[in-house]
Specification:
- With 253 residues, the chain is mostly helical.
- It is built from nine helices and two strands.
- The protein folds into two domains: 100 residues, no CATH class; 127 residues, no CATH class.
- Helix 4 runs antiparallel to helix 5 and helix 5 packs parallel to helix 7.
- It is globular, with a radius of gyration of 19 Å.
- Strands 1-2 form a two-stranded antiparallel ribbon.
């Protein structure tokens, strides 16, 4: 492998760690309707300001800090570290896969937004419009720039994914929320034709996870299961391998 590619992949990984800390702030503040443009860190329990370095859990550990709020003693949630590492890994593979292309820019934006949406939906069972709607427009613009001669395709697949999910929502509103419907709109904007593979994988993983939770009695049919994280996993898989998945499926049938 080219040394330059390796170096830049590592730099993208490191960048992902730092940006993951910013995503943690968004994940915490957006569903609580706290001001997101004041990028100071706050304790998840007492909501008091904490030192800036505590926004970076991994760096905080390296610096020998306790990992606790100095005011109330609450520990930094493990989720903060998970988000940092997950974002870093995604950035690493985005650059390693697409290198110097517009797909790298699209992938970085797409992965970042899906990380935020997944963790918010998992905890609060909401997908904020303030995230999904503006980034649907951004996704459409980037996809059209990528392939201007077929500018209508992102619009068509985005609308198609939205209508498909809306029908499911109307048939079974308890199993599919409007947030998931709007998320599919964003997926179509970024993935274009590969949104088909993304939704298929999302439904497959979501169904397996739901059945597993029901069988293990951690959930019942009366409980809501956030579907956004599974759609996001499908979206990431489709972004990296959507063409291969669609080709395999067409060949299979």
């Amino acid at each position: 492998m080219d040394l330059k590619v390796v170096i830049f992949s590592i730099l993208f990984f490191i960048s992902g760690l730092f940006i993951g800390s910013f995503l943690n702030i968004l994940i915490y503040k957006l569903p609580r309707k706290l001001p997101i443009f004041k990028l100071y860190s706050i304790c998840c329990l007492c909501r008091q300001k904490v030192p800036l370095i505590d926004s970076f859990p991994i760096l905080s550990k390296i610096a020998g800090r306790s990992g606790k709020c100095e005011k109330c003693g609450a520990k930094i949630p493990v989720r903060f570290i998970i988000v940092e590492i997950l974002t870093a890994v995604l950035y690493f593979f985005v650059f390693l896969t697409f290198q110097s292309s517009i797909n790298t820019i699209i992938g970085i934006i797409f992965a970042s937004i899906l990380v935020v949406i997944s963790f918010i939906d998992w905890e609060f069972m909401i997908i904020p419009n303030v995230i999904v709607l503006p980034f649907t427009i951004i996704g459409l613009v980037l996809s059209i720039i990528k392939n201007p001669s077929k500018w209508w395709l992102p619009l068509a697949f985005s609308a198609g994914a939205f209508v498909f999910m809306l029908i499911i929502h109307l048939i079974y509103p308890k199993g599919m929320g409007m947030g998931d419907v709007k998320l599919s709109l964003m997926l179509g904007a970024f993935l274009v034709k590969n949104v088909v593979a993304g939704l298929f994988i999302g439904f497959l993983i979501g169904s397996i996870a739901g059945l597993t939770l029901i069988v293990t009695k951690k959930k019942s049919l009366k409980h809501f299961i956030p579907f956004g994280p599974f759609i996001s996993i499908g979206g990431i898989a489709a972004f990296f391998a959507g063409d291969y998945i669609l080709s395999w499926y067409v060949g299979f049938i």
